[in-house]
Write a structure and sequence with these properties.
The chain is mainly beta and about 50 residues long. It contains 1 helix and 3 strands. Strands 1-2-3 form a 3-stranded antiparallel sheet, with no helix packed on it.
């Protein structure tokens, strides 16, 4: 299964990640601390523009 869409509910400290496949089926649900989010997202080949 491949995540095609990722939604992120942002808050001060805890971020909730929700991922679905091409059929809209939920295949990913995670709660991450703020400092964990970029490391997690980079697994999907998404890079931040900040250098």
């Amino acid at each position: 299964m491949e995540v095609t869409t990722i939604g992120i509910d942002i808050a001060k400290r805890i971020f909730q990640i929700h991922g679905v496949d091409k059929n809209g089926k939920t295949i990913l649900k995670k709660k991450l601390m703020r400092e964990q989010v970029l490391t997690f997202i980079r697994q999907f080949g998404i890079r931040d523009k900040k250098k």
